[in-house]
Structures are given as structure tokens and as C-alpha cells.
Amino acid sequence: MSDVAERDDPVGAWLSLPRRIYLDTSTLQKLYDFGGEIFEGEPFEPVGRAARVQGLADEIDALQMIFMVNERAMFEFVVTEASLHEVVNRTRPGYTQGV
């Protein structure tokens, strides 16, 4: 939908948003590692390997915005069976339980 059409039909723009969002294991790991920043608004202060990941701050910010919108949008977040297998294969009980 174009910007002009969205301004003329905000309900149509809202209804055109996806309702189901699939979470891959990379996203699940970010939610687990940076949940405080994403869900609680804690400041993002990367350390260790995270400090060397280019664009990580932008990804965390984007996830925070998605979940903020979800407070009203009520997206359905989905994890595929293949992603669940990847999570379980990591053998990290806290991460597996969180997912």
C-alpha cells in the first residue's frame, strides 16, 4: 500500500499488517539474550562478542518496537518445529524453557 493510500485508509493499512510472525532461532536467541532490553527498556550495553556484532543495536531496537506495537496489534508469534529442534539441540535448559 502506498503512503498516500495509507493516509487515506488507515484501517486498510492496519488490516494489511501480517498477523502471524515466524520467529527463527537467531531471533529467539536475541529475545533470550536481550530480553531486558527488548521487553523492559533496559539500556543496550553490549559486552564481549555482542560488542563486535555489527548492527546488533539496530536489531534489538527493531525487536523492541515490534513487541511494543504488539501490545495493541496482537500478532501471533510462531516457532516452527524445525526451529524447536534447533533450540532443543543446543542443550541449554533455560533457553529451551524460555522458547
| Overall geometric form | globular
- Specify the helix fraction band: 55-70%
Q: Helix and strand succession?
A: HHEHHHEHH
Major sheet summary line = 2 strands, parallel
Quantity of strands, as a count: 2
Secondary structure tally, helices: 7
Total domain modules: 1
Spans where pLDDT lies below 50 across 5 or more residues: none
> Structural class, judged by helices and strands?
mainly alpha
Radius of gyration, in Å, reads: 16 Å
Overall mean pLDDT stands at 88
Going across the major beta sheet, what is the strand order?
A: 1-2
Percent in strands = 5-15%
State the separation between the terminal residues, measured CA to CA. Answer: 34 Å
Briefly, what is this?
By secondary structure, this protein is mainly alpha-helical. The chain has seven helices and two strands, in the order H-H-E-H-H-H-E-H-H.
Structure description:
The chain is mostly helical and 99 residues long. It has one domain. The chain is built from 7 helices and 2 strands; from the N terminus they run ααβαααβαα. Strands 1-2 form a two-stranded parallel sheet. The longest helix is centred in the middle third of the chain and has 18 residues. It starts with a helix and ends with a helix.
